[in-house]
Every structure is written in C-alpha cells, then in structure tokens.
Amino acid sequence: MSSLRKEVVFKMNAAETQKIQSIEELRSSLGLKLVRPEGVRAPDGLPTGWSALDQYVLWQGFPKGALSLLHGPSGLGATSLWIQAASRITQSTRWCAWLSSSQGQLSPWALRKHNVALRHLVVISAPKNAEQRLWALQELLSLSLFESVACDLGTETMRDHHLVQLRQLSARAQCATVLISQRPLPRSAARFALVGEFTSQGLNLTRALHRPIPHLLPRRDQYADLMPQLTQG
Amino acid sequence: MRTLCLNLPKAERPAVAETFLAFSPRVHYRDPRWVFVDIASTAHLFGGEGGLFREARKMVCDFYPGATAAVADTPAAAQVLSELKPFSLVAPQAESNELGDLPLSALIHLEGLVAWRAVREVESMIDFFYSLGLKKINELQQVSLSSLRERWGDTGMVVWRRLHGRDKQIISPLVPTEPLTEYMHFDFAVSLLPLLLHSTERALNRLFARLQGRGEFAVKALLHLHCEYSNRYHLIEIKPVKASRQIDLYMKLIENKLAEIDLENPIKEMSIEIIPCSEKIQQLDFWEPRETDQDKLQSLISVFQQASLTTGFLRPQSEIMPEDSWEISAEFLPSQLLEDTIDIDGQAFQLKPTYSQSLSDSPRPSRLLPEPEPLSPARLRKLKFITAQPVERLEDGWWDTSRGRDYYFALSAEGQALWVFHDRIENQYYLHGYFD
Amino acid sequence: MSTGLRVIAPKRRDLQLPQSHEIEFVELLGRSNFSFLHGASHPEEVVTQAQSLGYKGLALCDLNGLYGVVRAYQAVMFPSHFLTPQISESANFRFFCGAEMQVQSEEGIFSVTLLPMNKYGYARLCQLITLAKREAKKAYSGLTLSELCQHNEDLIALALPPWSLSRLEKLRRAFDNRLYLPVWKDFSWQSLQLYNHAIELESQNGFTLVATQRPFMHHPDRKPLHDVLTCILHGTTLMQAKTRLLQNRERHLKPLPELALLWRERPDLLTQSVRIAERIKFDLGELKYQYPQAAIPSGRTATEHLRELTEEGLSWRYPLGVPESVRKTAEHELQIIHELAYEDYFLTLHDICEFARGQNILFQGRGSAANSVVCFALGLTAVDPTKVSLLFERFISKERGEPPDIDIDFDSQRREEVIQYIYKKYGAEHAAMVCTVICYRSRLALREAAKVLGIPLSTIEAIIKFMGRDGLKRLVENPDKAEEWDLKPRQFQLLMDIASGLKGFPRHLGIHTGGFLIAQRPITECVPVEKATMDRRYVIQWNKDDLTVLKMMKIDVLGLGMLGALQRCFELLKRHKGLNVDLAHLPSEDKVTYEMIQKADTVGVFQIESRAQMSLLPRLKPTTFYDLVVEVAIIRPGPIQGGMVHPYIRRRHGQEKVTYAHPDLKPILAKTFGVPIFQEQIMQIASTVAGFTPGEADELRRIMSSSWKKSELMAGLRQRLLNGMLQHGIPMSYAEQIYQTIVGFASYGFPESHAASFALLTYASSYLKCHHPEAFTCSLLNSQPMGFYSPRALIADAQRHGVQFLPLDIQISDYDYDLEQKNGHWLIRAGLRAIFGLQKKHTEHMLEDRRKNGPYRSLTDLVKRCELPKNTLLRLGAAGALRGLGLEPRQALWRIQALELKTDSLLFAMGREHLDEEKDTTILPQESTWDGLLREYDSHGFSLSRHPIGLLRPSLNRWKEGEWCRACDFKNKPAGRRLRVAGLLSMLQRPPTAKGFAFLSVEDESGIFNVVLTPDVYEKFRLVIAFHQLIEIVGRLEKANGVINLKAESLAPLPVGEILHLIAPTQTEKPNTPS
After folding, report:
1. Chain A: closest CA distance from residue B334 (Å)
2. Residue B397 sits in which domain range?
3. What would the pLDDT profile of C335-390 be if each residue is shown by its tens digit?
4. Cα separation, C869 vs A87, whole angstroms
5. Domain tally for chain B?
6. Which of C135, C245, C453 lies at the smallest CB-CB distance from B355?
7. Which of B321, B397, B430, C370 has CB 3.0 to 4.6 Å from C753, enough for a Cys bridge?
8. Which of A71, A90, A107 to mutate to test the interface with B (most CBs of B within 10 A)?
9. Which among B403, B420, B209, B242 has a CA at the least distance from the CA of B324?
10. Are residues B300 and B374 in the same domain?
C-alpha cells in the first residue's frame, strides 16, 4: 500500500507545479536539507485538502496510526481542517467519528458546506469526565472500523499515560486520532506525531517528523465567500 | 355431547385455553374471548357435571374476574346461555325450550365454535322478523326449514339447525404450542418488595395452572424486571435442582433473589417466562452469526447509549431556531426537510408554501455553543460587528415561550469569526457559536 | 391581538434616519386575506395602513384573482361616513389593482405579478385569470408559461424569485421593457442571497430591479394570525408547523424612514417603484358597463318598444280602463328610465319572464321592483300600485345613480330551467352568477383555532356545544369554564384571541342564491370568472356589494316553494274542477278568507303559518290587504327588537291614542299608526328627522340590507343617528328605540314593497285554503319538503276541515297526491311520493306500465311486469300499498322476501321453494292496531285512519285517574284551569329573541295546541322533550284575546307498553279494515 503512495505524491497537475517553485524556493531560501519521503519509510497520511500543509508534512495530512494535536482559540479553523479531511474519507464510504466536548457541538451546516457524507460520520455527545472520554476513545479505536477519530477536548487536558494508551491503540487500529483543544499540552508533546497551533496569523506547526519546526503556514480564510457577501449587504 | 362455555370479560391470548386442560383434553379457543370445553367424557372424574361446573366456576372467577360460564348440549346454546343466563346448567335435551323464552335478539350470540359468516345478514333477518311482529325465539322455532332456506339461503339453514340443536360442532383435543410467558405492566412503578411478590405470585399461579394442564414440569423461570428510569433492567434466573411443579418452591427462590436487588429504581414492567420440559433435557443451538460493519456499529451505539452517551448520525431538522435545527438519531435516515407541498389535480395545481424552508441553507457556525453565552459590555466593545443591520432576525413560538433574536457576524480581537445575537426581549447580547 | 413579543427593545445604535418627506414609495405587491389562507389583513386595512404611512400608492395583488380589489377601491374612493377619518395628509394616494399569477413551467411553479397599464390590459388580465381558474377546483389554478407569454400586451410583469435565466429570457421576449424583478429585505439569509443574485442579473443581463416588502400583513401584530392561517392551510398544529411559518414578522408595511434605512445604499430602487406606478394609467372606475341589447323587433328603438309593452301591460292589468294616476306615474317612470338608459335591463327581464310564462313556471318580482308601475305593467310584479302607495325613487333614483336591483322568485323546483335558459340565451361568455364570500363564523373559527392549538376533538365539541348560538361572547364572559375542559388559562386566552382574530376572514367563494350578471361584451373582460363547486355553474369573483360599488346591474333569480305549490293547485283546479284561476285574477278582499285568517286557522298558508304569526292574527284581526302586508312584515327581528309590535296592535284597535314623538314624523308614520315597521319608513325618518344627507341615507340602506355588519361601523352610525335626533328635539329614549329597530332591521329588514308582494301570495294561499281546501292540501303535500309543518300535521289539519283521504294503493295511486271524486265531494288519494326512501324512477316505470296494460293481477304479475328491486317492493308492502293485490302488509313482506328476483332464473317472480302462496304453512302473528300504526309511521310518517293518542285514550284514566282533557274542548274550559293532557310532540321552537322561552306544538286526535314552557320548566324537562314523542303535560290554560296556550308545569313520558296492556284485549284485535 505505501509503495503505491510514493508515485501518487509527486505526480501533480499543473496547478500544483507552480506551488513547487514555492517549496523549492523554500528549501533554497532556508538552505535546509529536507528528507525526501522515499528516503525514509513514512507512515501513511490522510490528506486534509490544505495543499500547503499536505506538501510540507511528511504524511501529506494527518498521520495514520498516530496522534495529532491541534490547539489554539476556537474560531480560527481547527475544526474545519479536520472536517475537510473527514469529507474526503466519508465520500469514499469509509467511517470517521467525532467525540464532542461540553463546550461546543458540530453543526450539520458546516459539514454540508464542506460536503461531508453524514451517512459515514458518527457523532458522540460530550462525555461526563476524562475517564469516560478515554473509555469512549478506547471503544472507538478497538472497533478498528474508523479511518479517523477526532476528539474535541475543549478547555480540558488529557493525562500523559492516557495519551500513551491512545497512541498504542491508534497504531494498532491504523487510525488517525486528532485531538482539538484550546490549551497547549507542552509536557506530553512527544506523544504526538503532529502538533499545530492556530494563531491569528495562521497555523504554526510546532512538531512534525523530519520537518524543520516551528513553521508558520499563512492563514487562509475558510469563510471568505461568506464575509464579502455581507460587506455588500 | 355436553359443552361447557366460558365467556371471558376481555380479549385474551389463545394460551388461556391451556388453563382449562385440567377439566378435559378437548378444549377449543375462539377469538376473541370464548373457550369451549367438551365435558361429556370427563364429568364423572369430578363427581358429575355439577362438581366439575363448580370447580371450573371457581377457577375462572379468580383468574378472570367478571367471566361467566354455562353448560348446555351444543356449543352455540352454551354461548347464548353464558351471555344471557350466566352460570346456568341445562339438563340434556332441555336446551331448545330453555332458549325458547329468550328475546329474538339473542340470535346474534348463537355462534358456538364457528362465528356468523356475515353478522349484518343475521341482524337484517332479526329486524325483518321484528317487523313481522315475532318477539320470542320459540316463535322463530315454528318457522319451517324450507321457508328459512327459501328466504335466506344457507344462513337460514344454519340458523334453523342451531335453533333446533342439530348443528354438528366437534371440539378437537388441544395441542399446547403457546410459550409459557406472562407479562405485567404496572401503571405506578413498583418499588416495594411485597407488592412485587404479590403480582409475581398471581402470574405464577396462572402459568403453573397451564403447566398442570399440559402435564409438564418447570425447569427454570426467567424474570425480566424493567426499571422506570434510563431503561435499566434486572434479569433473574431461578433454577431449582430438579424440574418441578411446586409453586411455593419457586416463590421462595424468587423471594430470595428479589430481596438482593435494590428497588430504588422502581419497576415499570415485568415478564416471567417458564422453560417447561416433560422430564427430558432440550438440546442447545450451535450456530454462531458473523458480524458485519453495521452490526459492529449497532453494538457500539447500544453500548454507548447504555452509558448514557447519545451516539448516532447527525440529522438536520426543519426548525427555526438554530439550536433545535438538528438531532442525533441512532440509525441513519435521509433528512426529510419540509418543502412546499404542491397538490396536482389534472391540469390545475395548488401550491402550499413553506415560508422559511431556506433556513437550512443559511450559515450556521461549525461549533455551536450548547448554551448561548451572555457577553459583558466590555467584551462587546472589543468585538467588531461586520454589519449594522442584523443578518438574520429569527422569531418563534409566540404561543408559549416567545423568542426574538437578531443575528450578527463579528470578528474578535484574535481574528476569531463569531456568531453573536441580540435577544430583543431581554435586550442582551449573546455569543452563540464560532465559525471555527 | 395582544399575544406576541412583549416589548421590542430599541435599536442597538439609532442611526440617523433620513427624513421621510423626500422618500416616495409605492408598494406593488400588496396582499390581503383574499388570497385565501395566505394573507392576514382585510383589503380595507391594507389600503388605510398604506395611506396612513404616507405611501404614494399601493397595488393589491391577491393570489390568482381580483377578489378583494373592489373592497380596497371602495375604502380609498368612498370612505364610510361613519368611520372617523384617520387619513389626513396623503390626498393623492393612488390605488392599483393586479394579481399574482402562479405559473407552471418545466422547471416547476413560479409566480408573476401582473399590473394592468390600461383598460385593455385589465381585460387581458381578467381573461388570464379566467383561463387559470376556469377548469380548476377551489383554490387551484392552472396557468402555463406559454399561455402567459401569449397574453402579455399592456401588462407590467414582476417576476418573483427564485429566478432562472432561461425563464427570465422567455419573459423578457414577451414583456421586454415591462418586466421588472422585485427584491426585498426581510432580515433573512434567503433575501440576501436573492438580492445578490438580482444584482448580478442586473449588471450582467440588464434586468431592472424594484424594491418591495412582499407584505403578507399590514401590521406586525398580525404575525400570530398569519401563522394560524398557514397551519390551517397545511392542516398541522402550531407546534408541528416548524419552518412552514414565517421566520420573523418583517413581512408587513413598514414606515418610510425604516424603508429608507433598509435601502440606504440603493434608494433608486424605491423611486423605481414610483416610476412603475406612473406607467399605470388604469383605474377601476373606468369599467364601462353596458347592459346587453335585448331582442328588439327590427326598426324600433328600445324606448319605443318598452313604451309599447307598458301600454299593452296596463290595458291587460286594468281591463276597465287605466286610472289617471297610474298612467301619470307610468309616464314619469318611463321618462326616468329613458334618461338613465335602463331600457335594455327591463326588456331583458321581460324576456326572461315571457319564457317562464311560456313554460308556465309561476314567478313574481319582489324587492324594490315592486315600487314601479312599469314592472307591474310588464307583469314582472303583481303588486297593484293603486292598493299600496309606492315611491319610485326607492327603486331608481337619479341622484343615487345606482343600478336597479330586481329579485324575481321562481318555483324553486323549476328554477334550474330558468338558469339554464339564461346561460343558453346569452352564452356562458356573457352571463355568470354572482359569488358570495363565505367567511369564518364564530363556530368554525373556534373549531379551526382549537385544531391549530392541538386541542383534542372531544373538547372542541364540548366548547361548541356550550357556546350555542350566542357566539364567542358567551365563552369570553366565563373563562372559569376552562378548567372544566382542562385547558390552561393561557391556552384558553390564546384560543379566544385566535378565534376572534379569525372571525370575518374569507374562507372560500360560494354561489349567491340567484344573482346573475349579464353583459353585452364578454363578462371576462370586466371580471374574472371561475368554476363553482356545483357543476355546470360559473361564478364571477365579485359579490353583490362589489357590483353595486361599480354600478353594475345584476338580476336575482331566486326560488320560492310556495309559488310551485300555488301553480300545482291552479292545475288541479283546472284539471278536476274546470276552474280557470290565476294569481293575478283572484277575487280580492274575500270576507270568508279574512274570517278564516282572523281565527288563525292558517296551517300551511304562506308566511303566516308559524306559531308566532298564529298567536298574533287573532289580536291583529286583518281585514284589508294592507293589514296582511303589515302582518307579514311585523313578525321580524326588526320590529320585535324595536318593541314596535304591541304598540301597533293596541293603536290598530284604538286601545291607545296615536302619538308621534315629533310632528315631522306624522306624514311618514300615519299609515302605520305612528309605529315604524318598514325599512322605507326608517330611511325617511333618518333623512328628514336625523338630518342624514342622501349619501348617508343610502349607506344606511346598504347597511340595513347587507347581512355583514362591522362593529365600528355600527358604533359610528349610532352616534350619528342619536346626535341627529337630539338636535331635532326627539327624546333620547325614542331615538334609542329607533336605533334598536335599525340594528334588528339590519339582519332581516322588510321593505314595504317586498312585504306587499309576499302579502299577495299569503292572500292567494289563504283564499285557496278557504275555498278549495282539498286542492290546496294536495298541492302542498306535492311540493314537500316546504313550509313549517310536516305532512302529518297538514293531513291532520285537512281532516279536521272535513277533507277525506284515500289510502295508498298500488292499483290507483300515482306518484303525486291526487284528487278523486266520490259521490259528489272530492277526496285526496295519497301518492307514492309519501313513502320514505322510494325512488322516483322505479315508481314512474311501474305507473306507466299500469297505465299501458291495466291493473296488476297479483304480486308475481307486478314483479314480472316491472322488475322492481327487493327493497322497493318491501317499502311498498310495509306502506300497505299492496292491499290492492289482496296481500295484508305482513303477508306481503313475508312473501316478497321469498321471491326470486333474478330475471334470468327459471323461477323468476315466484317463490324459490313454495311456488305459490297456498302451500306456505307458517302462520304470522295477527297485526294489532298499535303495531299497524307504528308500521305506517315508520313507512310514510302519517296514518290516515287513526292517531296514536286516539288509540291510547280509552285506557288513559285506567293508567292514571283524573280527567284527561282533549285539544278540541280547550275552548270551553275557563282560563287558569289546571289540565292534564296527553299529546304527540310535533314541533319544538326556541327563537333567540324569546329570551329562553320554549314553544311546543303538540297534537292529539282532536287538534293541535300550543304549549309554552318557561325557561326553568324547559331546563327541567329538556330530556323528556328530547327523547320522547308521546308525552303527558300538566299545566294551566292561558287565554289572551282569542289566543289559547297551555302554560306547562310538568311533562312526563307516556309509558306506551304499560298502557297498551291496560287496553281490553278485544279492542286491539279488531281487524283493521281499510277506512
């Protein structure tokens, strides 16, 4: 499966090629030596649809079988990043799950805007406490049915040994587990394969395998088509 | 041929006939509430028909209060007598003049094992005879078979035969097939042990009476106690050492088991099932089902549901207020949002508009706060409102709790895209969600 | 409507509002509640609100129709005198009419609002609506895009969203610069999206936009009512309606500053609406209406033809020479008719009446037509102007300029022939019936409101039963009943608000009983026509009030049962007695007839047979025709509520001095002894004494004749009337009495001419009852169901007048009752029509077969010859009609049941087992007289030979001692005497004006008598009356100037079974020989 992936990554259409200059320039400007994907056996990734992120990260998206963390104040695009990834998954009739927190619920309008097939998205309401959240995640992962499981921590945090268990489980189930929280988890950063912090300037990648970090990706406005319409109105 | 007819007060399940197997193997149940027992051959076991009748009457009265019974030659006459002259015992061959002095309308009940094919036809026959001035059944018995057959065809023939007791209806022996289960629903949830025991005992009595009739023994009894709140249930299994038919043994075992469970979550429904065996052990079933994706998901959802985590698929609802505009449903159903209904009649049509059906396309934040969060004036001043006029004005429910909100888009200092509304009744601003 | 948002908070930042004077705006998409269940305001409210907000104008475009257009036009052009004028500044407010057409195209259904630019555009719009509604059921319409594009000249089109470019291009090809795209902003995301789409269309495809508010109501408080209407439309409750309702209350007429704020960045769209309004040059007043030219013999003008017909008519009416006064008034009338060019109207009527006379359908003109000598001459009406003083101005007056309104009554069973004749003669294009608007009455409004609130059906029934006839006020008065129906107080309050809001809203169109609009040019040019629920009937979208506003002439073709009865009586007299009698040539002022009327022996007579009339006749003692006219007019809610009846009677017999509240009233009220009874008199009082201007007097007349009364209108009228009277020096009490009469008149007022034409029929029917009772009763029985009494009461009354009846017999009876002569005097042979449930087509076949090949020899012969179905045979047998074949009723029934009726079977018409009757040995019980009576009552409702009380009479005192009084010996019993009577209850009456009193008419074998029940007695014995027909009454006798009543104290059911046992066995077994 992973060998097939190699050709796919570098066979890009015209729109992508001009992006390459930017990556080449990036490399030349930074003068860094990036490890090319075929140089190391990279785990598979779930493409997120944000081409800048997909190009930069080794796994072209969220790492499968590993933990990812997106943190930062809500309203800056963390959820919609995972939603775009989920829309690709659900369209090819594979399953993904969302575990919501007590601070917010997912609304069908946003899912429909990124055209997620609701038939393949399972939504679980907010668990009462951390233990129940861990138990729920273990149940979800042990089913080995889901491609990606997202867990919205809201303002709470997760203890280190829980993260270790999660990592083993998602590795065994080859499922991309994404945690979204409003507070960073500095001490247990090592547990995650990918960590991104959302700021008003954009997404600041603070941990990505074999990639120079920290790396700032410029912010893209998800709801650009919404806001100008309003200024006219 | 002597028939005992039992007329139960309300509709019962066919299994009820098995209770009366104790009196004679020949029992026939007719939907909805009649049981006919042929007691010609077994009356002598109870010391004559009177003894048997007294026994049957006692049993039927305490199991089904309000039931009536009667004994006559033919099932049809027995049914009429149980309806109009309850608990009467008619001497053999004295049936027709017993029927004689009943009013003409009693004809409707003259059915026996086979109900009237068309009740309307019988009723019109009765009206016709009333219009001819006949009042009693004995006047009807004078009319000849040929006149009845001439005017009402085979219904007339059946009427004549049943009037003169010449209708051959044979009650065949009953083969018990119905499951031995009793179900009870408590209107007021029960949390006192003695109350629970009392109703269990009544149900067990009926079940053991049927066991007696079927001549079988109870291997074990399963009690399902469904609780009132968050559909928890208790499953109790009572298995005496040897299959037996003693009711008090079972009652003692049940009492011990019930004493253990805590009843603060009161019991709403209860079902008792008895696994019978006629002295032989039954075999088990070895087939093991394969689990598909759907089954895995269903089991996951049911496990989560039990841990009171609502799980399922998002389903948009056509509601005006954003917080009610979707629900999580256990299995996936395509979303039926309300649309304009158009009735077509030939060339013409009538359009019945659904005025705010486009609410499902209007923008909603991807992360909606469960409770709108009031904004303090300080925080309000920090927000930058994109439009002076409200983007959407939603008003709802003037008939109970009326709600009126003006929705705006706002940008916070950190660049977060917010969804803020101004409640026009309390004149207070709330944050309702993030365009995350 | 007090529900809804409590206090709406002030705006967040009050932006500076541009001044309202420089903004001009015309709302082009106004909608009233005449888009049934889509709009929530009356047309008048929409227009007055637009005027008070200072709009330049408003176009009322209802869904698929021009239903409410005339009402709005009237509210703008002729505001009512009695409503305080709120509208001050906007003098040049313009009202436009239009329609929102729902059109079907491939992509689905969209709507286009069409505004006619001129008269031709209006005609085309009417044709379009007719095209859409012609074949469609109620509330349905079927217009296609191609049809719309064909009829597009002189029409401005506003294509409503959602737009598709292909469709807009098609519309633009048809309408080119007359096509606009309306946009609105109602704080909904959809309106923003549509607005952006419109801007894009404007910039890329060059369409012109116009601003509107797409209003569904005139004021935001009507949003709850609009939600209720939407729920009714969808048939759901408020809780389940969800997104079917509007998401906010912005769809109303907004003040100009608010509009300016909304459109501050595109104010040109607001002014665009004014520019469109300027292109419209059409006003409803321009509708010229010509009456169709009648069929005039060539070479002569309409006036000459009319004059000639009038001369002919006068000579026919007055064979001994036309009195000079009549000739003078005729000349005066002809001159006015010529001036106003109404000749064609009269000639058309004349033509219709000639047709009716040709088919000898009896007819008679009534209403204001009876005031005209010309109509009398043309034979339209039969009121002789010499007998009754008539004023022509009441019929046609120059200054009022309103068209004449003539109602003509035809025999109700043959009215359909006249209607189809009119359709055939003028073509469905030129003649259509006027519509009536069926509105929500309190009972239905409450039922719909409860359904919308999700209240269970059983509770609704209980509420409605409690409400009874006094409408919502009874519920509002005692809210404590709410607990009884387990409604929370808030829910009950909501129910009341919604129900009172719904009252008066139009629900759908119905057909006016007989109003016809006939036009020279096709009718669809001046008003759209749609299909009525009854087949073969087409109805216009305006009702009779709209027509009078637009000065259009309508004819009323109404039905009257009594005319048919009189016609049959004349035929019977001609056929049997050879007398040639005609309605116009009855001997007038016949003394014997008046004596009969004075004795109140008027069962079956037209108009004066009701109990209330009967109790008044002995007191009034009419002796002249004018007394009859007063008698007919006086028992009406008008005079009763005005308290005019008793003073008139006393003054009529000189018991009271004739006084007038004011000398000016003397000339008006002289004829009726100073007591106002007729509508004309009230009108004259209002104009002379209360100082009403002709316009106000005319509006008063319209209020009195229209059944729909608006509360604020009546309050204004009361104020104006009382002020006028007080200024004129009339005491307040008398003025109040006059006002009460007007309120009473408003519902059933009787003009004098109207009463005169009815009085003629009353006189004719009482003359015939007096001189030819058997012919009169026979004709009455043949035109059932009609009138106040059941066939049983009519027969009993005739028998008391010595008329004998012959029982039903298959060999002799026809379908109708008929006369038979037996040794010198006439008897009535009962007709087969009396039998309940017997179908006419079976009997006709049987009778015609009997005429052809003689009487039937036996049952088998009858069945063989006419193949009657089984239940028809059973019904004939039960009625005892088969005695002619030698079969007693019970034998007949028994035998029929055994017959083989399948025609193809070998044993056809014979017993299946017993080929002939002899061998059948079953002996049936002998039928007692009581069972026979019950059988006859079940079969045809009366028994010719005996009366139930008569049968029970012998054993009554054996059942209960004491003296049982009979109806006939009430006369010789002293007043106040306590009596015990047994009777058969035949009629119960509780008129609303009788304040709870109930009146029973009870009959026994000797006659009919009236029983009066005081409210408490009625409440106590209500169940006895409801469930028992044979009752025992104990009460005191009351005798007041010739009227005998029994004031009941207690009622009890007669235990028939028990009494029958007491009857000696010999009596009942008497074989019931045919009498």
Report:
1. 9
2. 363-434
3. 888 888 788 888 888 888 888 888 888 888 876 766 778 888 888 887 777 766 66
4. 74
5. 4
6. C245
7. C370
8. A107
9. B403
10. no
